[in-house]
Design brief:
about 290 residues; two-stranded antiparallel sheet; disordered C terminus; about 30% helix; extended
Length: about 290
């Protein structure tokens, strides 16, 4: 059975219109889900809103939204007032610009959707837009009202179709400087970079999501199966404390396991200490003198 569209509307580029439908591309519905159960009765527990001061239950009709100005001081909004702020939807994705694919920082990516033609009449303009994006190596940036909010959409060609990814607004993305401010300015040794480069080259491949496993989901499935079969659940052993590892030694060991060539040139020279070179030079000089004598 064909999946149910999350949204239907029109993709509009200048005077070109294409009826389209959005389908969820990523979903958590297949994950194992738990309900909260009353241990004593075995009955399912339901959530209930209660007054924060009196502790009494508050019925749905008495629940309103409130914006906190100060502790305990709220601006109260009714459901009708909140609804009045919802933007009107004309069911149109209006494309504002085409930009190179590399121009969009993926920190702005939010949620992916498959964008497909919604009827036969849409197939030709749909193919035109898809092939045009692919040929020019660009993505379309549009805007639409989706699920009661104005959303920015990045639309790109993907195989036989289009993928539309909602983007975060600029105010929603935190500045990177705040996260990276404590990173010191360090100079990495040439040999370290050479060894790291070798490890990267040896492990270079292609991204295949099927090779990755959600170990937590698998463990939950095993846990449920064990309970059904009456098997005892063994407690997890605490992890062993992590040892402090010398970075250079770890790089050399990793590179050696992958068949790394010995560092050459200037980088190789840095691996020997000054006293060691001087000692060997003195030994060669003494040997020459003995032969001369």
């Amino acid at each position: 059975m064909a999946p149910r569209a999350n949204w239907k509307g029109v993709l509009k580029i200048a005077e070109v219109s294409c009826p389209v439908a959005l389908f969820t591309a990523a979903s958590t519905s297949e994950r194992i889900a738990f309900h909260t159960i009353n241990r004593a009765t075995g009955h399912r527990v339901h959530r209930q809103f209660v007054d924060g001061v009196t502790g009494r239950p508050v019925e749905r009709d008495d629940q309103v939204k409130g914006y906190e100005l100060a502790q305990g001081d709220y601006v109260v909004l009714t459901p009708e007032e909140v609804a009045s702020a919802t933007p009107a939807s004309d069911k149109t994705i209006s494309v504002a610009a085409f930009v190179p694919c590399a121009d969009i920082d993926d920190v702005y990516f939010d949620r992916p959707y498959y964008l497909a033609p919604s009827d036969r009449a849409a197939q030709e303009p749909y193919a035109l837009i898809r092939d045009g994006l692919r040929k020019t190596k660009t993505v379309a940036i549009g805007q639409a009202v989706l699920f009661r909010r104005v959303r920015i959409l990045l639309i790109r060609a993907a195989g036989e179709g289009l993928v539309a990814t909602t983007l975060n607004f600029d105010y929603e993305v935190r500045p990177a400087a705040a996260a990276f401010s404590d990173i010191p300015d360090m100079k990495i040794k040439d040999e370290m970079l050479e060894l790291a480069g070798h490890i990267i080259r040896m492990k270079t491949g292609t991204f295949d999501p099927s090779t990755f496993e959600d170990r937590y989901e698998a463990a939950l499935a095993d846990l449920v199966k064990a309970k059904l079969e009456g098997r005892k659940i063994a407690a997890r052993k605490p992890p062993k404390p992590t040892k402090v590892v010398d970075l250079m030694a770890a790089l050399r060991e990793s590179a050696a396991a992958m068949g790394a060539p010995r560092p050459s040139g200037r980088a190789a020279g840095k691996t020997r200490s000054g006293p060691d070179r001087a000692g060997k030079s003195a030994a060669r000089t003494a040997a020459s003198r003995r032969k001369a004598g």
